[in-house]
Amino acid sequence: MASSEVALGSAKVVGSGRSTEVGLVELCRSGDPQAFAQLVSLHEGMVFNLATRLLGNPEEAKDVSQDVFLQVYRALGRFEGRSSLKTWIYRICVNQCRNRRRFWRRRHTDSACPLELMTASEEAQIAADRNEASPFDGVARREKAALVHRALQKLSFDHRVVLLMRENEGLSCAEIASTLGVAEGTVKSRLARARDAFRSTMLRAAGEGA
Amino acid sequence: MNCREVLASLSAYVDRDLSGAGGHAIDAHLESCAACAAQLRGLRASLDCLAALPRIAPRESVASRVLDRLEVERRGPGLALLFRPTAASRPLMLPSLVHAAFFLVAAAGIGFALQRPLVGPSAWSRVGTEEYPEVVQVPRVTSAALADGLLSEGAEGSLFFETRLARDGSVATVKLLEGDASEAAPVIEALRRERFEPTRLRGQPVVVSVYRLISRLDVTAPRT
Lengths: 210, 224
Ligand SMILES: [Zn+2]
Description:
Order of helices and strands of chain B: HHHHHEEEEEHEEEE
CATH architecture of the domain at 141-215 in chain B: 2-Layer Sandwich
Helix content of chain A: over 70%
Bound molecules: zinc ion
Oligomer: heterodimer
Strand order of the largest sheet of chain B: 2-1-9-4-5
Strand content of chain B: 15-25%
Largest interface: A-B, 68 and 54 residues
Order of helices and strands of chain A: HHHHHHHHH
Shape of chain B: elongated
Structural class of chain A: mainly alpha
Number of strands of chain A: 0
Number of helices of chain B: 6
CATH class of the domain at 1-113 in chain A: Mainly Alpha
Shape of chain A: globular
CATH superfamily of the domain at 1-113 in chain A: RNA polymerase sigma factor, region 2, helix turn helix motif
Strand content of chain A: under 5%
Number of strands of chain B: 9
């Protein structure tokens, strides 16, 4: 009789936190599926969140997240450890999102891709995570998050990238520079322009919403 | 320092990324210039909004999807059956293996799969264009026609079907995408008699494709 041991690909994370990053990468390179599952579990949250905000669509973000880690798996042999694993994965994620965006734009004249596509259960999940004090808090927070999300979608892709990495993911300008493969000064000036664009967009959005 | 210079440095100022003297010069300007102070407040407020943006977590683990995908690639393209624990038996999307088709996993609890023919309860559906399908909830079946016993005792392997639903939820076409056509005949007959709840996307009734894997699983001892 078969037991549930037949189960393949159940991504149980074992021994979390003990492996160092280098050790984990080495285990992955040796073809250890559990190690790779652990690596994905450690970083899937940030990849999915960033992809959702960059693309505006959680369903597409799910596909991108999958593709990001498939690329990570295949390119792990070329990872030199000069940047951190985190910034390396961010870089793959940004590139995948940029490619998706191009592909999508060629087929759709409307570049806006609203969060309304987010399913009810996902919204419910967010609400549950935040443990809202009152239903009104929940509505107010969701409205505000939707407003911010819409404002973000109006910016250019490059501006969105630096803003999300800096303000939402909390990366330093040096980490962003390493992720994007540009000079730190470039990140700072791009960030200044992106912040200015975002502030004006928020201002307009707030005016329209009132 | 004039207003233009101050506004150009606000981003660095927010990051405390200015030399001591530069920072003090802006402090001094902001104390006396209400317009620039208002700009700073606006900037800080909008950045706070970004920081407070809720993090969106995937509903299902990305890791298990990636591992499944790698497993399928190891076995080569084609229809691969994956056994997963019940809790994880969710549809799987493998967009690049076969054009415009979604693969899905219909393995329920292994014990269940062992005992009797499994008529896959899970299904995946899509709407939208071929290149950019939108995934929707699988519409509910209002009159089921599937039953155990549709597959003959000797039937092995899996049948992969696409059912295309009209806007009113009636079945327009049933197509066997993969599997033995002679075994599939009675199942196709049954699938044609099904009826679904109409699906709406943003208020509009839409045509939906439902993909289902129907299999009789004869599982022998696990690999060691
Ligand atoms: Zn001023």
